[in-house]
Structure formats: structure tokens, C-alpha cells
Amino acid sequence: xxxxxxxxxxxxxxxxIWDNEPLSSGELVRLCERELEWKKSTTYTILRRLCERxxxxxxxxxxxxxxxxxxxxxRQSEEFVDEAFHGSLPRFLTAFxxxxxxxxxxxDELQRFIDEHRG
Length: 119
What we know:
Elements: H1 8-20, E1 23-24, H2 25-36, H3 40-52, E2 56-59, E3 62-65, H4 69-85, H5 89-99, H6 104-117
Antiparallel strand pairs: 1-3, 2-3
């Protein structure tokens, strides 16, 4: 199973790609030099890792995502709920709302979501 967790540095790198794709690998190297103060070898090492994990691809010198930002974070959220709450969304919401009171707007949004997905 692919793990959809990124460290802080990998997250910054992924965000740069999502914000600028499609881009050439040379453009990515220059962007990482400017934004992250990385050397070329560091950029290619991290890119290779994230390509191996199926998040991005570097094909013919063009870097693009295999998963959109939204898809990635959706999968990351699913993985978290599966691991921490045995896949139970109600358990997650219970834990979440123990320390943070839900606003009326949040409750209304959740109710709309439930109504739309009721089968």
C-alpha cells in the first residue's frame, strides 16, 4: 500500500510542483534552488522518491502530478482515519469535536453532506 504522508520538506516540494505544473525538470531545479535553496542533486533525489510513490512523474523531462493536490490530501485523510479510527468517520468526528466545538455552518455543511450521500 502506498503511504500518502509527506514530511515538511517533501510537502513544500510537492506544493511547488502542484503550483507550477507542468514544468520541465530544469525549471523545477531552478525553482528549488530559489525557493528551497537546494542543489540539483537534492531536487532529483526528492523528485525520484515522490515519483516512486506514484505522486508525480518525470517523463521526457516534463514533471507533472499523477495525483492532484486534492486527490493526494483526500487519500492522506482516508489513510489517517483508517489507521487512527479503524476507518470510522463517526469516531473521527467525535474525537475532532471533543476539543473544538463545531460551528452552525460546519454542522449545516455536514448535514448537507450526509443528506447528499444517504442511500
